[in-house]
Design brief:
The protein is of the alpha+beta class. The protein has eleven helices and 14 strands. The chain is globular, with a radius of gyration of 21 Å.
């Protein structure tokens, strides 16, 4: 499959070619790293291809605002996660515009399309999983009402998103993405690991969109409020070793405590400090797997007052003490 960027005003065109392996031809994971230059910037990405699935992640460094014609002959179902940056694509056939913003995700049926794309200057970091249509239809069968209904559009020939509005990338999704990008396995075990993680991420994504359908009216409706909640998350993670109090965080981002608490929960499906605790424990788990630092140092680095406190929290989250996790 190929994606073509064309700027008619400059007479410039560039093409990216990728492939989703057919599920009927099993093989081990193929990895391809690339760095490409375009008139509007540079792309550095990694592609992992396995039967029925293609994983691609990387970053566009866009040196000027890009607005170009985009055409694609790919036919797949794509899980799209925008980690940073902002852009949009307008499908000429349907007239719909699909936006991409930092920490947002959606699921798309892509039967091939022609349209216009625009991306802001700066860094656009992405993570995508593309299922072949036949493989996705197998996964969606007897799954959930949302995915089974979405599967009906996959049989058709129009671009469709599983939800009109993008949803936030949850902490569990971030952890799953991180696991995929840092797979410790090779050969057949890598294939099994990546396949299971892709399915896990699809389950998490479907759950987030199903939850949004039955959610009550939003507390934080305005763009300003939504931006403040996102800034609260970013500030919290940047100061995970010495986090502010809820009152301090509310003042920093410009919201009252009620809106911060309720808005954070509705956006990330977690309390403010529950989210922080899960983030710190996941970071600790990664450090333990590296086996380079003592448990005492990891506990201190993650902001825990003592090793027993850290051990109790870690065991509650992962079901085993950090000492045992370090040896696994």
């Amino acid at each position: 499959m190929a994606v073509t960027f064309h700027d008619s005003s400059k007479g410039q065109s560039s093409q990216i070619t990728t492939e989703v392996a057919d599920v009927t031809h099993p093989q081990l994971v193929r990895e391809h790293k690339q760095s490409l230059g375009f008139w509007f910037g540079e792309l550095a990405s990694v592609e992992l291809t396995l039967p029925g699935i293609q994983i691609e992640y990387g970053s566009w460094n866009i040196n000027q605002a890009m607005n170009a014609e985009i055409s694609s002959d790919e036919e797949c179902v794509e899980m799209q996660f925008t980690l940073s940056g902002k852009g949009e694509i307008r499908d000429l056939d349907s007239g719909h515009t699909y936006g991409f913003s930092q920490n947002q995700q959606n699921l798309y049926n892509l039967p091939g399309f022609t349209g216009h794309g625009g991306y802001q200057k700066g860094q656009f970091t992405f993570f995508e999983i593309k299922f072949s249509k036949s493989y996705f239809l197998q996964l969606a069968e007897q799954s959930s009402a949302l995915l089974m209904e979405f599967a009906n559009s996959v049989i058709g020939s129009k671009i469709k998103a599983v939800s009109q509005a993008n949803r936030p990338i949850s902490l569990a999704m971030h952890q799953c993405i991180n696991d995929i990008m840092h797979s410790p396995f090779t050969g057949g075990l890598q294939h099994m690991f990546l396949q299971s993680k892709c399915i896990e991420l699809l389950v998490l994504q479907a759950q987030s969109h199903e939850t949004a359908i039955v959610s009550p009216a939003l507390i934080c409706k305005s763009t300003y409020d939504q931006r403040c909640i996102q800034e609260a998350r970013e500030y919290l993670l940047q100061h995970a070793d010495n986090p502010p109090s809820l009152t301090e965080l509310a003042k920093i981002v410009g919201l009252n405590e009620y809106k911060l608490k309720k808005g954070f929960k509705e956006k990330y499906q977690h309390t403010v400090f529950g989210y922080l605790n899960d983030y710190r424990l996941e970071q600790a788990r990664q450090l333990l797997l590296d086996r380079a630092q003592p448990i005492k140092d990891i506990a201190h680095l993650m902001g825990y007052s003592s090793v027993p406190h850290f051990t109790k929290a870690f065991k509650k989250k992962f079901g085993l003490p950090p000492g045992l996790a370090k040896r696994c």
